[in-house]
Amino acid sequence: MLEAELESGVIAKRGIDIVRGEGCHIWDADGKMYLDMGASYGVCNVGHCNPRVVRAIEEQAKKLIYVSSSYDNGSRKELMERLLSVSPPGMSRVFLCNSGTESMEAAIKFAFGKTGRRGLVAAKRAFHGRSLGSLSLTFNPSHRQGMEGCLLPVKFANFADMDSLRGIVDEETAAVVLEPIQGEGGVHVPPEGYLRDVRNLCDEMGALLIVDEVQTGLCRTGDFFAIQHEGVTPDVMCVGKSLGGGLPIAAAVLGETMGQMEKGSHGSTFGGSPLACAAGVAALEFMEEERLDLRAMELGARFMEGLLEMEHPLVREVRGRGLMIGLELKVRAGPYLSALLERGIAAIPTGATVIRFLPPLVISEEDIDDAVQTIGEVLNG
Length: 381
Prior knowledge:
single chain; Aspartate Aminotransferase, domain 1; Aspartate Aminotransferase, domain 2; four-stranded mixed sheet; about 35% helix
């Protein structure tokens, strides 16, 4: 393949050279079209090469591609204003960076600085990134292998289990860090009321609540952010992936409880570049005007219903919310992911037995129905 002799080797490849994308479809170098049911791990919520995002990039590139965040810039200001306008009530400031893992690194530092504490609590099966701070919060031993001794001390509770959480949150806990819905861990949705109970526990113990909305955010689950389903306001909310409509940009969104961070306590050279901010403004405008939150809710229900109606003997469970769906099999998922790719359906794995679906939120009813039919045929062999 094109990159095999050049790249580091750490990325597992799918064996396809993708050269073009439009909406919810991608094409390989041979001209074969695929329905992108993974949106590049949730990056392309507004679709590949969204025309509004493309225009915004073109217009901004003619004016200013990059300037340091030490200077004010209108595109950066507009992105922060728009992001705060769709965030949970009580979110008041934004730190811009380049990726979800960077936003989590910022959140950790901000929590330490705000509370003066050093304890962190996360959930089993959690995934929060691969750099050392965010990796400390990531539970999967395979991701942590070889890094023992380099990571921050973190206590792990069972996800969606308040008794387990209460047993380890104490007066040394700086923050509880959670995904509102676990993505990489297998698309696990907590019961109603869990996130409110976590918020109450954090308040009781003087700990901060950090929510990782990198994958669940920006309309993916049927609201702008998954935590809004329970009306909860976190102290810090990490946002990334689809914020830039395909360009790298992310944010740690801070609640009023955090106040203003100390100048010079953190930074990001390329965070908040005018080009990425202009793309982000266009992406957020498109999400709002096209009501992608409602589309995700309605089309997600259609997709889940289709998968459930199959009642296939190989399927253990279908779970998710909006257009974030996990299909857990009773056997290893790898061969079925490969078979789907052969049939033109590009889904993504999560764990050994779960196929994850994160399609662009612009996907049509017809594409969902076709995908359900193809999934059934592939499961039938």
